[in-house]
Amino acid sequence: MKSLAELQALRDDMKSKIGVRKDGETRIRIVVGMATCGIAAGARPVLAACVKEVETRKLTDVVVAQTGCIGICQFEPVIEIYDTDGSKTTYVHVTPEKVPKIIAQHVVNGSPVVEYTIGANAN
Amino acid sequence: MVRSHILVCGGTGCHSSASDKLFENFEAELKAAGLADEVKVVMTGCFGLCALGPVVVVYPEGAFYSQVKVEDVKEIVTEHLLKGRIVKRLLYTETLAEDTVLSLDNTDFYRKQKRVALRNCGVIDPENINEYIAYDGYMALAKVLTEMTPEEVIKVISDSGLRGRGGGGFPTGKKWSFTAVQKSDIKYVCCNADEGDPGAFMDRSVLEGDPHCVLEAMAIAGYAIGASFGYIYVRAEYPIAVKRLKIAIAQAREAGLLGKNILGTGFDFDLDIRLGAGAFVCGEETALLNSIEGKRGDPRPRPPFPAVKGLFGKPTMNNNVETYANVPRIILNGAEWFASMGTEKSKGTKVFALGGKINHTGLVEIPMGTTLREIIEEIGGGIPNGKKFKAVQTGGPSGGCIPASLMDIPVDYDNLIAIGSMIGSGGMIVMDEDNCMVDIAKFFLEFTVDESCGKCTPCRVGNRRMYEILEKITSGNGEIEDIERLENLCVYIKENSLCGLGQTAPNPVLSTIKYFRDEYEAHILEKRCPAGVCKKLLNYYIDAEKCKGCTLCARNCPATAITGEVKKTHVIDTEKCIKCGACIDNCKFGAIYKR
Q1: What is A26-121's CATH topology?
Q2: Beta-carbon neighbour count of residue B103 at 10 Å?
Q3: Which chain A positions have a beta carbon within 8 Å of B251's beta carbon?
Q4: Of B287, B290, B314, B547, which sees the most CB atoms within 10 A?
Q5: What range does the domain containing B276 cover?
């Protein structure tokens, strides 16, 4: 390391790599259903896509976590997004391709992608 | 793409309950489950809650698993990491909730803590410099080298109110400026990592959990006082700390953060480790300097102070590990931030090692001014087995016993000195009703007698005489004049010893006489040990009403001191009894008691 600038660049790069290790101070939680039903329906690539998108966009106040069976197995893969106010949005039949849009529109800009939600797909 | 981190505590406490095996098993199980690329396993430093070790924390959920066994690893991997179901039976009970985990910050143990010196312990991988850098590591060094003059650095440290954490409590800024004003071609920076107080392990935990913060602080100190070389004096009994320090030094050199022309600023600083062989006196700074030079670790009179004439006759600045651990944060957050914590004359936080009769054995860092009651009852979780708190020994063999009546005193340097104890390095040994205070005083004195270097007479001979008097009292031969003899010797030894070891050695005796004189008197006048500890003053008896005549005690007595017929009350022959306690352990009816 030859300069302060290099040290700062390394720090910023490393920060995103250890972002999952924090308590509290998170704005939004993205929870992916990872029970047998979810995994069978393809939840694993969806989880990976969420993690990747959050990391590329450097969303340090967003946590991607997994949970067990959400109870609506016919809709898997399911992801739930918990906002700061405690409200929850449930997205169903999620694919890795849908993830960037959900994160860009909902997590970053605060407006849910209605057509992917359970409400729009219930019937 | 890594989505989850498993942090396994690699501090000495958890390591001794096989956390290294957990680490290996996690890696193997993750591989078997096909998760090796998604989940990262990290060996960290101490989380502080050593009583519940080995500790494993899984992020992003922040699930705090305690007392994890090798057999549990597979379950955590398949349930938590594969299927997303937290393994509730292993969660630390206070964090257990209906459908999620509660943050550790809200548990009794952590709620009142404020981690400054321990900020990275249990958070980063101490063997990876990049993780330290991610948490602003070496940014404080970069800041002083690029933006501050040495005088400005010393001013920030002075204004922060930081005082030496090794026990003395000397203002750190003053120490730095005394060395800075010396004119010399060579100056040295030293780190005292010769932590020797029984029951104190905060320095070890900092070195094991965050070794880079000490290196960074020493480089900052070098810049401030005009030194370009440093020594870390660490005891060889800390193998994990030594190993991680060596790795840290190699990585810092590799990254150009130690060595020549650091960050292109023209500042040179490098350092080396010196291993101590474990003599307690080498924690005294002049003895420590002698030992670094390769001489016998004996103290020498001061002045000249090390700031004037220290290592190899050159001006030397010596600070303790925990003192250094505070420095980078003070530089980054400012003197006002640090001074906003603590009491009027003791700023910041202090790490304490809780040990003895307390539920949460471990390491806690709290703002100065927290009361003993908060530390012991709330953070420490109180006394186990429903016993009654009797006293707490702070500062190890140099400190004193503080009785229950003084529990509400805010802990800081001056308050503890005023009541005859001291913060010392921060050991806190909690005692309950089953501890005999005369025996405790004898225990600590035995330690100092053993560790006295023998150079000066008051310490070498005086402490031994005191030990003999205590031995006499605890074996039932004490006279009432002995208390006064002890008090006189205490004063004499304190006033005339050469170094801190002797000057503080009488504190445990003085404070126990002051607060527990009745126990001394019971030993001397009634030939009775109220706590039932001093063997020579105890006799074992069988309660005739409770004894069922089962013969178990008689059959297990190694001295055949118990006689009696089946189904009839047994009797102990106190002449033959060797007071081993085997009968008490074997009696199913609680019929045997000692008095």
Answers
A1: Glutaredoxin (3.40.30)
A2: 13
A3: none
A4: B287
A5: 129-338
